[in-house]
């Protein structure tokens, strides 16, 4: 078993990036339910994100979404973040909320639309230069709804062309993170539907092109930890978008639907060296009906708990059982770690960092929820689905 | 084989109800793409629906959605419809687009919200009285997103109570149609997730409570035609909501994703006597990226083609093969009908009804699309996802 | 929270029936891997089952499978069981392993085959009379592989007829348990594919006809605990066939694939009164590659752990959170119980019953595995897939 | 639209390889139903395969499965085939039906088992040398059933090592075809679960390593034609294993479950140049309950019909509609081809080749079924699942 001190040290180093858009309203195609006190500006989102970091000590960076988080002065925004104890993180592009993108963005049959989308991606790189962000995360809503609607293969050619142009534009310390998604909003084909497609494109681009695994973007029954292990083996796992789902891309709190799966994923991350490499751990969630800040705190905690359990796996005993073909014993070694209640350990870790052992309770006591509900009245949030 | 004359007669009698909301804008949680010329009023929706009937001869009624189609004078609306050659059909309730319904409507933990939802359902019955509609179609977005969020069983009790109250309110010639849905917008539980749940509730209500099969509301791999056959055998198939899907509830044009499945469904409908009974055939679709009126015309045609093929099955030869256990021959008899090109037959049927054999071409020539694009400027549609 | 004493008492009363066939070899269509020491006779299966009960204290009965467990003298078999500390339990019929059943058994198009199948079911009732078994569990492999192969609706009529004949034959203290299965071995239709179909048949039969929930027999994404809650609400949950699956009907050890789901199921069982009613808790698993007896011990323990966690849910706190619409708190109350490490509690329970706290270790020390490997040489097991 | 003469020419050139094992008995884990007249020797399988070619003119080669088709003299077997009008085709390895392979073959934790498996693969290459076969098709049943059972990543290393050794052994005109499979017989992980994994391995091996798409080996909802288009774009589509499925790997007759999907796949094959390249089109099916030879004839015909429809797509009209963003028209162009009844065209093609227009009827009239039923009595087939 990993030494307790080493487990604690690993947990203290773990960082989960929270997404600015998760602090705003979200919903389904049926309804976006407005919540009181949600941020109306990028600055207010950063304030909320800072609260998550204040109580967890594990969420030091905030992902931006362009254009939702567009500001005139990114240096000032970065300073604002710094002043609140967090940093700006990954820049996320958006090529799906403009009427021009009805039939796609970088894969659109019309070159003018593709150009517009590409210009937006270039703008994102400019913003990265201004914010000092390392990662550009690309998710394309591109795809088709009906067989025959467009030429599946030409769309790949268009995609490859756009990716190459963006990759070319990146600085030496910047990365292109390509996200795949099984379905939605396109229903018949998705232009980057699986890890294989993302991987094949990244291979052609170069070493700073990496794949993003969004835990909600797979077909039913897919073994996600296998993909994680494979991408780590190939040196192409760039980041996670964490969330959880029962059926489709439900974007529920990570660990809420299948905590055992999250544990298995974190085990493969650790086993493959992903915890101490450049893999970025991000949340990508929608808190449609639950309070947003505590939901994000809970999500960070869920990642921590899965990580702690994965760190506790007795890897030597596991290797012995595996090599001897003792199926039950190997499984038992893994389950022993999973069945451990790691909450006391994590409370200790937090206390050693000078934090409250129970971040949710501490947040509730802080009065922040009441304050933003009272103060953030009027105005309008720029957000997704809003 | 069914006599050609009988096949034609059956096709001439077939009616597909189109939904008022399909004429308006729709989309996904990511974006609703606005289309030019979409209706802004219930009357304009009826005008468009009338065009679908004018060119297909098979869409004589229009389903209403309350409150999207609320008007002051329903008798006048019915007369407006009549003047345009169509009739008002099923009334659809909406208990999901109000902030109060964040945690449910008739299953909500708060009795005040349940009362509000029930009042809406009563209002729908009042509207049915005014329009002369036979059917009230109930789909509840109720459910939960997280394990533990609410008591699954108490929600059933609340649902049963509301359904009983509505059923009680119905007139002797009115029906309650209960729709089930596997998931979405709730992600963990749905309060009427499957036909079994809808059926069990209907059984307790009485004979005028019937189940609605929405072809997009099932788990992957579900054999929908089996459910159709079973509900017909039980005397509880009230209606269809037709659409098609590749993965979730995609609401694509019926027959677009799996035309063979639609054929099998129509075969079971015919075999179970559903074509000549009170089963209502409705569309429930979203034309997010394609032109709406021609998409609805195409959908009506797809239902007709599947029906024509199903009518052509040589049921005597099929029975002989089935009884003798000749698997390949029985399958071949079914496939022989499916592989037949029924478009010439349907063109004949239309021409015998005084229609153009090619409804899409006729619609395109009619100039309606250009006219509404030019005239319907300004104003705002009331619609779903809008 | 439930009082600790009450939790322990409930756990001490819990009984899980183990299936005689799980002690024998099993496999996939690709290969049945033989294991050393597997039973060759019903008596040897009972010996193994007795070991599971000896070390867990929670597996007092053994389900029989006819004809695999056919003997000349069932009274003697019952006495043999008694002498080894266990009892005979549910009788399982088998109408799938005879060449005559290629196109079905009770749903077969040929009346002679249906008659043969029905005679087998009657024989099973006779055996129940001899063994004193309460429950007859019926699972039919019936279905079709190709559209058109047989008449879906007539097959339901044939099924209803057979079920009625069997129900009629039962004694007043005997029950008919009808199991549904989504797919396999039939691929296009299954004659009892879902709980709704099983429920509808049971309703017509009478109160002693009850539904069996096999946890591996559902479409992907199905919420099984919802079905459990619904069947308990309807008074029609007769039994569980426990196992777990990642994709299809994998028949892995219960709790191995999704322990959180098993916990949620046990929570609904407890909440619906199923723990103290006549619901039968059975395993139905295949230990294709792992040692069978310890796998079954582990499975019993997994059920116990899930039950213990479900018993620990603070139902008062849960109700408060649910009624106030506090989504996060309600979920947290449930997760608090799930995240508890209940293994020490269960060790205590076992020790209070005079057992070793660690049944797997105790079994390993017992030498039983070595003994049967040495002694059970030659002969042939009668089993499934063998 | 493609010129009719060109369509006919393409159809006349199309070849579908039939698998020797499909002529033998097969089944599910529940039961293998024996059929009268099935082959008992490789020679008898070739005789049956020759009949399929005799009546379809489109099945000129037969895939072998080692060890099921092991003979002392492969040159003699090739000559036997030639004398019957067919040729030996792809060699399929089998590393799943030996007790040693319980925990895997080339991925097994034990080096001795891996060595045994590799020796078998080398033997297969030797057989290819003797038969003159071009392709070695590798499908590995390797995987794990339980989390923790083995090290996922080390298994990839072992796999890579074995593949490299086999690739090295191949002659310059020989290919390694790597097949992926989503699940079964392993239930937790499969060592080559998706096209991405197969593709990544092939990339490292070299240009003669190609991916096999088995149409039944995907998660629910997977867009197979997208994978086909992508692999063709990457130059890595080596072969198809055709069959169809409703839920899992059902191995039903190709085109039986979703003929529209098969059409879409063939469209992407043609669009990507796969019809005239080195892509091998093979069947891999199990005719568990239907007569085998006519089922295989029907399967070849289903591939031909899908191909004919795909050839009829008016690609110019399609491109115009696609480029102009006319979703409905583009879909309509595709559907127009799909809705065409191509059976008369295929009858013409056959007649022009001197064959009967209706291969099934011709086979039935031939008396072959009666002859083999009478003659093939006694003996035992070597086959899968038997």
Kindly describe this structure.
4 copies of one chain form a homotetramer. Chain A is an alpha/beta fold. Chain A has a single domain, classed as Alpha-Beta Barrel (TIM Barrel), CATH 3.20.20.150. Chain A is 46% helix and 11% strand. The first copy, chain A, is built from 14 helices and 10 strands. The first copy, chain A, has an 8-stranded parallel sheet with strand order 1-2-3-4-6-8-9-10. In chain A, strands 5-7 form a two-stranded antiparallel sheet. The first copy, chain A, is globular and about 60 Å long. The model of chain A has no long low-confidence stretch (mean pLDDT 96).
How big is the Rg of chain A?
21 Å
Q: How many helices of chain A?
A: 14
Number of strands of chain A: 10
Strand order of the main beta sheet of chain A, please? 1-2-3-4-6-8-9-10
Proportion of strand residues of chain A? 5-15%
Write the CATH homologous superfamily of chain A.
Answer: Divalent-metal-dependent TIM barrel enzymes
The proportion of residues forming helix of chain A, as a percent range, comes to: 40-55%
Number of domains of chain A: 1
The overall pLDDT average of chain A reads 96
Low-pLDDT runs of chain A: none
The rough form of chain A would be described as: globular
Q: Class of chain A in CATH?
A: Alpha Beta
> Structural class per helix/strand content of chain A?
alpha/beta
């Amino acid at each position: 078993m990993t030494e307790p001190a080493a487990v604690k040290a690993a947990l203290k180093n773990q960082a989960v990036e929270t997404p600015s858009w998760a602090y705003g309203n979200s919903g389904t195609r049926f309804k976006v339910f407005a919540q009181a006190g949600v941020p109306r500006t990028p600055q207010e989102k950063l304030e909320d994100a800072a609260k998550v970091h204040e109580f967890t000590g594990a969420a030091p960076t905030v992902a931006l979404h362009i254009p939702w988080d567009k500001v005139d002065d990114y240096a000032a925004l970065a300073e604002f973040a710094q002043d609140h104890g967090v940093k700006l993180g990954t820049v996320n592009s958006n090529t799906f909320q403009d009427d021009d993108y009805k039939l796609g963005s970088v894969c659109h049959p019309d070159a003018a639309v593709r150009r517009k989308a590409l210009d937006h991606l270039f703008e994102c790189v400019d913003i990265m230069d201004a914010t000092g962000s390392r990662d550009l995360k690309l998710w394309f809503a591109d795809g088709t709804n009906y067989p025959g609607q467009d030429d599946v293969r030409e769309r790949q050619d268009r995609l490859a062309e756009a990716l190459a142009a963006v990759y070319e534009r990146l600085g030496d310390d910047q990365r292109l993170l390509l996200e795949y998604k099984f379905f939605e909003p396109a229903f018949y084909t998705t232009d980057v539907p699986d890890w294989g497609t993302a991987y094949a494109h990244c291979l052609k681009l170069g070493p700073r092109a990496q794949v993003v695994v969004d835990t909600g973007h797979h077909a039913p029954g897919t073994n996600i930890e296998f993909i994680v292990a494979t991408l780590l083996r190939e040196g192409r796992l760039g980041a996670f978008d964490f969330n959880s789902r029962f059926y489709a891309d439900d974007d529920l709190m990570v660990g809420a639907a299948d905590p055992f799966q999250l544990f298995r994923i974190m085990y493969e991350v650790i086993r493959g060296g992903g915890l101490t490499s450049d893999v970025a751990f991000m949340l990508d969630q929608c808190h449609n009906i639950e309070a947003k800040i505590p939901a994000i705190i809970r999500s960070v905690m869920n990642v921590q708990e899965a990580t702690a359990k994965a760190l506790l796996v007795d890897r030597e005993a596991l290797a012995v059982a595996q090599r001897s073909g003792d199926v039950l014993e190997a499984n038992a070694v893994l389950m022993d770690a999973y069945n451990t209640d790691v909450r006391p350990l994590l409370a200790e870790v937090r206390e050693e960092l000078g934090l409250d052992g129970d971040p949710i309770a501490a947040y509730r006591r802080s009065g922040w929820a009441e304050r933003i509900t009272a103060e953030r009245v009027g105005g309008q949030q720029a957000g997704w689905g809003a």
